Amino acid sequence: MVAATLGYSAAMPSGNLELVRRLIIAFTRGDFPTALELLDPRVRVYPRSEEPAVDEVYEGHDGMLEYLGNWYSQWDDYEVDPVSFREASGNRVLVVMAERGHMKRTGITLDQQFSHTFTVVADRVTEWRMYDSREQALDALGLEDDSA
After folding, report:
1. 108 contacts 136 by C-beta, under 8 angstroms
2. Strand intervals (E) in 1-148
3. I need a surface site. Which of 56, 88, 100, 137 has the fewest CB within 10 A?
4. CA end-to-end span of the chain, whole Å?
5. Share of residues in the chain with pLDDT > 90 (%)
6. Do 138 and 145 touch, CB atoms closer than 8 A?
7. Sign of CA pseudo-dihedral 54, 6, 86, 88
8. Which tens digits make up the pLDDT trace of 1-24?
9. In what side-by-side order are the strands of the sheet with 77-88?
10. Which residues pair with 110 in a beta bridge?
11. CATH architecture group of domain 15-141
């Protein structure tokens, strides 16, 4: 099961921020046709560096679907809720997401926030990077922490 809320911490979202918000909502609802419309056919997906048994990069719609299929298939229950969205330079958007899940076969339970960055070019997401922490993502984007 995948679920999401629509909340975000921006006043009126820009085009890039709104596009990424729509992408996240489509994924969390399992609406892959809509998600694919928002992704460039040559999208590059970079999983977290600490994530076991994944490729360094997945390319194109088929690669992205392969990665997500492997990720979702591991979980008996899995939910993701976007916590915040933030624009960055270079047409990038930072998204912090609360992710919760349980794997019965291993007993692993996940309840953690992960950060993702998305690059938008010509109204399509061309790059999706995943990070273990908000701090890693902020550093990669050259941003200061504004949560104080």
Report:
1. no
2. 39-46, 58-59, 77-88, 92-103, 108-121, 124-131
3. 56
4. 34
5. 59
6. yes
7. positive
8. 344 444 433 443 479 999 999 999
9. 58-59, 39-46, 124-131, 108-121, 92-103, 77-88
10. 101
11. Roll (3.10)
- The two three-digit tokens of residue 142, written as one number: 């050259």
Which tokens belong to 22? 């729509």
21 token code pair = 């918000």
Q: Which pair of tokens denotes residue 34?
A: 């809509």
- Distance between CA atoms of 92 and 114, rounded to whole angstroms? 16
pLDDT band of 148, cuts 50, 70, 90: low
Distance of CA 147 to the CA centre of its chain: 20
- Which pLDDT tens digit goes with each residue over 67-98? 988 888 888 888 989 999 999 999 999 999 99
